[in-house]
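Backbone geometry:

***
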Amino acid sequence: MNDVDTEKIANLICQVAATEIMPRFNNLRQADIREKKPGDLVTAADEAAEEALTRLLQEYLPGSLVVGEEAVSKDPAMLGRLKKREPVWIIDPVDGTSNFAKGNPQFGVYVALVQGGVTRYAWAYDPPGDRMALAAQGAGARLNGRRITVTIPPGDMKQLVGQCDGAPAAHFDSVRPLFRELVKSGCCLHDYMNFLTGRADFVAHVDWTTPWDHAAPDLIAREAGAWVALDNGRPYDPSQCRRAFMMAAPGKMWWDRLQPIFYPLHVA
């Protein structure tokens, strides 16, 4: 696979957000929203954005494959593409669909490019905030063109702010007193944006690790200097879609301190 023009892909993502997502924000009809399964929404914006991104990304990289969240919901066998030799685009057209459908601006777009079971490139776009985070393997992470590095907090756990998801907010009540604040945004992308910009000190997800939710932020966070791992310290594998604990922390020392607290909350 040749080098990818990260800025060109970022512009394509912004273009799709401007034409397919933002015009529908706070402008959805009831017919534009449905359940894929109980509690799991999809909107006309999700479907239109995924269709547009699929076409544009494959035009940019002929011969590449696509694994999109909405396509997989209709045909789970498409996940098998992640084990093929060809480069594969992973798309989450609207991360935080429930927020989007309610008029909550905490949503975004994820795109990752994977080959050989390794995430090579990643993009995370927050359309309402016009924030684009991106990374290339081995080349660092940037936010709106500026290099970003996660902040290492002081040693007092009681001062930490965490982003938590994968379960209802009450699921984390037993450990909440150990921290300054635990926040559930309802959007993986905003969890990681807060982490990357210093508004949060770690991200803990305790349920499914789907490629469209986790491949992009895993690479971006690691390229920004974070320690990201599953369960008992194994690296994230973008070809897997299963229940697993995943956490991003500002270094291995903090990951090792936080893991015994959050891993028992994992929804097995």
Summary: The chain has two domains: 6-147, 157-265.
